Amino acid sequence: MLNPDAIRGIITVGSISTPILLEIKRLGIPVVMVDHLDPVFHSDSIFTDNFASMRDIMLYLLRKGFKRFQFVGNTSDAHSFYERWVAYTSVLMGHSLNLNQIPELSSPDVDDFHKTFTSVINEENLPEVFVCANDFFALYTIEALESMGIRVPDQCVVTGFDNVYDNIPVLATVNVNKEQATWCTCSGPDVMAYCESRK
Q: Cα–Cα distance between 34 and 31 in angstroms, integer?
């Protein structure tokens, strides 16, 4: 059993379910969230610069000469994914490239990944680059492509975000050091004062 009076504050990392957040709110415990927002639970949050990082990946891909892209990841699943999608589309539009997206691959349909992916992708509509919302989607994309007999990186390339895997053939990813972000959140000189002020 938790003693809420003994807890000065909680730092969450990544997605946390709304019911758990509402229980924390009911207990009156201050919260700082790292890499997560919840529309019914308002608290301070710390995020990776998703927009700038995705813009950097896209500009790198454009410098390499790629012109046909497909975003992969449910943009409504996480605020970070949405920010990455916004950066992705803004770079394409800023360089006068057509979006020509397969909407199922950036919608909740992608939650049933293999079925959705293999039903909408084939060798005739294969983009040059699958730009994935994170490394998990990059891994799923590579596995689905390989199951279809499409070779990565020979026939297309895949990018990720988060630098979770070191053994998958992604062309690029973004190193997001959540441990360091959490440590910085916890080690600031005014963390205890902040928690006390939020009670």
A: 10
Which position has the token pair 């891909």? 61
User: Which strands, in side-by-side order, build the sheet including 44-46?
Assistant: 10-13, 31-34, 44-46
C-beta atoms surrounding 183 within 10 Å = 12
Both tokens of 199, joined, read 């009670």
Q: Do 59 and 36 share a structural domain?
A: no
pLDDT in tens, 35-87: 778 888 888 878 789 999 999 999 999 999 999 999 999 999 888 999 999 99
Whole-number Cα distances in Å, 78 to 17, 154, 194: 12, 31, 26
Which residues, listed in sequence order, are joined to residue 41 by a DSSP beta bridge?
Answer: 38
| pLDDT reported for residue 32 | 86
Query: Are residues 33 and 113 located together in one domain of the fold?
Result: no
Helices then strands, counting H and E runs in the chain, come out as 7, 6
Same structural domain, 83 and 148: yes
Residue 15 lies inside a defined structural domain of this protein? yes
pLDDT digits 0-9 by tens, 74-96: 999 888 999 999 999 999 999 99
Q: Are 120 and 112 in contact (CB under 8 A)?
A: no
Q: Which two tokens stand for residue 1?
A: 């059993």
pLDDT digits (tens, 9 = 90+) for 116-134: 999 999 999 999 999 999 9
Segments forming the whole domain that contains residue 12: 4-48+178-198
Number of domains in the chain: 2
